[in-house]
């Protein structure tokens, strides 16, 4: 049986490396994965694999990734 892994707003904020306000803006942006459930008392949750795939697709390369020097 496959184990379902979920992420809440805090975990998504950490994955994005952003502050809470900016991360929440992104979570409500068109194109961000739909929540797995938004009726839980603890808050909205997303499927981890969908969020991490989105983060990988939309992450902008840093200067270090592009071969720049510091």
Kindly describe this structure:
- With 70 residues, the protein is mostly helical.
- Helices cover 39% and strands 6% of the residues.
- The protein is built from three helices and two strands.
- The protein has helices at residues 9-16, 20-27, 48-58; strands at residues 6-7, 46-47.
- The protein has a two-stranded antiparallel ribbon.
- Helix 1 crosses helix 2.
- The model has no long low-confidence stretch (mean pLDDT 88).
Which helices and strands, and how do they pair?
Blueprint: E1 6-7, H1 9-16, H2 20-27, E2 46-47, H3 48-58
Antiparallel strand pairs: 1-2
Helix pairs in contact: 1-2
First-to-last CA distance: 47 Å
Q: Overall pLDDT, averaged?
A: 88
Radius of gyration: 14 Å
Strand content: 5-15%
**What is the helix tally?**
3
Total beta-strand segments: 2
Q: What structural class do you assign from the helix and strand content?
A: mainly alpha
Instruction: Give the strand line-up of the largest sheet.
Output: 1-2
Q: What is the makeup of the main sheet?
A: 2 strands, antiparallel
User: Rough shape?
Assistant: globular
What's the order of the H and E elements?
EHHEH
Helical content class: 25-40%
Uncertain residue ranges: none
Summarize the structure.
By secondary structure, the protein is mainly alpha-helical. Helix content is 39%, strand content 6%.
Descriptive labels:
2 strands; 6% strand; mainly alpha; 3 helices; 70 residues
């Amino acid at each position: 049986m496959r184990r379902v892994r979920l992420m809440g707003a805090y975990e998504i904020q950490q994955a994005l490396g952003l502050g809470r306000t900016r991360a929440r803006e992104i979570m409500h942006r068109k194109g961000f994965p739909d929540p797995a459930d938004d009726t839980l008392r603890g808050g909205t949750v997303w499927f981890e694999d969908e969020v991490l795939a989105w983060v990988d697709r939309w992450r902008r390369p840093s200067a270090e990734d592009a071969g720049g020097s510091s």
